[in-house]
Write a structure and sequence with these properties.
Layout lengths: L1 H10 L10 E4 L6 E3 L11 H11 L11 H12 L2
Antiparallel strand pairs: 1-2
Length: 81
């Protein structure tokens, strides 16, 4: 878990107090958007970010996932192992 927290902290833009910079409400539910380091592209999406976090957490999934369905498919594969 320590490395997962480090992964997330490394990806977020922090203010002078070390607090993540909140950008606004999410589109669904009661989540939020936060400023992140890096540039969004087809090779670097929110889904590839989640895949990277899952890999750091110990899940054996492919790192080059672009779509949410790919993340779900990989997790279903793990469940069936």
């Amino acid at each position: 878990t320590h490395s997962l927290f480090a992964y997330i902290e490394d990806k977020l833009e922090l203010d002078a107090n070390g607090t993540p910079t909140r950008l606004g409400d999410s589109l669904y539910g009661n989540g939020s958007f936060y400023a992140a380091k890096g540039t969004f592209s087809l090779a670097n999406t929110c889904n590839s970010w989640v895949a990277g976090a899952l890999i750091v957490a110990g899940c054996r999934i492919r790192p080059n996932i672009v779509r949410a369905s790919g993340v779900i498919s990989e997790l279903r594969h793990l469940k069936n192992e």
